[in-house]
Amino acid sequence: MAKIPESTIEEVLSRADIESVVGQYVTFTKRTGQNLFGLCPFHSENTPSFSVSIPKQIYKCFGCQKYGNSIGFIMEMEKLSFPEAVKYLGDRYGVDVQWGDDDSENTKNLKERKKRVMNILTDAAGYYYKALNSDAGKAARDYAAKRQLSNETLTKFGIGYAPDGFDNLYSFLKSKGYNDEDLNDSGLFTRSKKGNLIDLFRGRFIVPIFDAFGKIIAFGGRNLGPELPKYVNSPDSLVYKKQNHLYALNFVPRNTKQLIIVEGYMDAIAMHQAGINNAVAALGTSFTDSQLRLASKYAEEVVFFFDSDKAGKAAAIRATNMMLAYLKRMTGIKIRIRIASVPEGKDPDEYIKTYGADSFKSVVKSAKDVNDYLFDRAYDDNYDKDSGLDLTKYQEDIITYGSWIYDPIKREKMAVLAAQYLGARAETILFAMEHAEKAAMEASRGNEQRESERKEKTEVEQRRTSAPVKVPNADRVTRDEIELFVRAVRLGGVLADETKIERNDVIRKNDFSGSNMKEIVGFFLEHFNEKTGVSDALLITKMSDLLLNGLKAETFYIKASEQISRESNINAEVDMYKRTLYNVRLKKSQDELKLVDSLIQTTEDKDKREEYIELNNKIELYRQKLIEKRNKL
Ligand SMILES: [Zn+2]
After folding, report:
1. How far is the CA of 64 from the centre of ligand 1 (A)?
2. Distance in Å, CA 62 to ligand 1 centroid
3. Most-buried pick from 301, 465, 493, 575 (CB within 10 A)?
């Protein structure tokens, strides 16, 4: 991890207050005292279990258990490393974050490797570009001509050609001095059966993939003959994660309000050439939530073009579902989603070539709001011109789609319109939509819960198998608890000396879990003498008829006190006593936290839930104090 000076981190944390950092992503729906509540951005839910504590400057989700400070939040949200998140916040809140020179070897190495890979990619792009205009590149030039790509476009997009053969690019890059390890990192090569690096792109039309800043991070290659697959793309690499990028975003003007999203980079290129400069392409088979978030940083609205075939239609429904679920969760992200379809089943590229950019712009204008799109899809998909509307299937679809919509007014509108076809009351349909939404959420929560229950179970089983004897509750005492008691007894009158031990740090019955131990402690406190404490002799009379961990209490106690180390002086004894006390209390509060957390997750009552959340925050604060005290010892 890179080394950022502690003082810089502190300054970032003091300026990047948690409310404003989280507020960029989460809409707070409630404030109680110094705590804010909203829907969790990390898991899907319909009642807020995500909280921010202003005095503590932390966030915590009682649903998925994530918690942390502003830096941790940004790491999680933006998928950044610690130093990157500090830098990110530093940029936003005006703190100069320097970490380049202080990098540890690992980070330095990684940065160097990435730099070399970027250089390789740039050199490769130059090589492909040059090859396009070589004799061998004729097939690619013919293809470009067939797609009616102008020379200007070929240059702007850095279009190239990968010559046929297994080691053209490889030899070129080797001659530039790159080693196999870095070449392997670049994603431009694959391995032969013998294990040698061979060119990934062979005899293909090459499209460099840029990041939002115009740096080349990967390539796409289209076939020029019948060979399969039609498209070969760079795999994810040190510098490329396809789900995080939108092709051609670097060519979109900064002041755009709208992004047009098409399926392939060839479509995007054709659109830019036609003057539609706000077109971008998703780089995988499906649009991702990271891409939607990226788009939301550049525009207020996205207009999607999906292929009009069956696969394209299915992709549209999948993407719509994903996006609506994502936006339901991420209340801080505001982006309007519209779905367009090109008439006559053409793709956008063909359509522009046939009818021109202006016609295409009117197709964009007529794109449907995602809610209307879903409404129409439910009808179109289930309508047959001979048999009419299949009402059973229509009902199924419309209720599913309605359950995805998070805007209550739009959902109601959908229900009202569907009521006409279904011959049912809108309220009933609305109710069914809400029910479906709840069921879907419970199903997803069920998955999470089953997972965490499974984990807990294995933990309990582990504990069980490692515990030598299974003890009934009443005589239960932990190793730390018995040590605490032994040390308290040993301190004698010092336990009452407030200059050494504050009142709060005197043991109480509640520090112990089993009822027998509680009884013994109660007896101890009752008979406590400010000068001498309580003698072992007196304690043992009390213990004679009680059990501890399955043994006679006096035997157990005497054995334990023999085993527990004696410190060299009374101050060291006091410190050890305190350390043990804090550990016991920390353990206990941790168990309480677990209980409160499970109450928060299971309760349906909103007020109760908030009470529990308050309680949880109190326990956390208490734990923090204990940890501080323990650290001071
Ligand atoms: Zn959560």
Report:
1. 4
2. 6
3. 301
Alpha carbon distance 292, 307 (integer Å): 19
Measure 329 CA to ligand 1 centroid, in angstroms.
10
Mean pLDDT of 119-139: 96
Question: What distance in angstroms lies between residue 605's CA and the mean position of ligand 1's atoms?
Answer: 18
The answer to whether position 465 is within a domain reads no
The rounded Å distance from CA 402 to ligand 1 centre is 24
Start-to-end CA distance of the chain, whole Å, equals: 29
pLDDT digits (tens, 9 = 90+) for 274-304: 999 999 999 877 788 888 988 988 899 999 9
Bridge-partner residues for 105, per DSSP? Answer: none
Please tell me what DSSP assigns to residue 345: G
DSSP-derived pairing of the beta strands 50-53 and 35-38: antiparallel
Q: How far is the CA of 19 from the centre of ligand 1 (A)?
A: 17
Residue 147 belongs to domain spanning? 106-240
CB 414 within 8 A of CB 395: no
Within 10 angstroms of residue 469's Cβ, the number of other Cβ atoms is 7
Q: What is the torsion angle, in degrees rounded to the nearest 10, for the CA atoms of residue 220, residue 225, residue 226 and residue 227?
A: -50
Query: Cα(125)–Cα(157) distance, rounded to whole angstroms?
Result: 11
Residue 555's Cβ-side half-sphere holds a number of Cα atoms within 13 Å equal to 8
Å from CA of 72 to ligand 1 middle: 14
Ligand 1: distance of its center to the CA of 50 in Å? 6
28 within some domain = yes
Residue 462: pLDDT band (50, 70, 90) is very low
Residue 1 lies in a domain: no
Tell me the CA–centroid distance for residue 51 and ligand 1, in Å: 9
How remote is the CA of residue 609 from the centroid of ligand 1, in Å?
A: 15
For ligand 1, the distance from its centroid to the CA atom of residue 198, given in whole angstroms, is: 45
The last residue of one of the domains, among 42, 71, 93, is 93
Q: CA 62, CA 187: separation in Å to the nearest integer?
A: 41
What is the pLDDT of the chain when averaged over all its residues?
A: 86
The 3-state DSSP class for residue 97 equals coil
Span from the CA of 443 to the centroid of ligand 1 (angstroms): 16
What spacing in Å lies between the alpha carbon of 327 and ligand 1's midpoint? 15
| 471 — pLDDT class (breaks 50, 70, 90) | very low
Q: What percent of the chain has a predicted confidence (pLDDT) above 90?
A: 42
Residue 205 CA to ligand 1 centre (angstroms): 45
- Hey, is 241 helix, strand or coil? coil
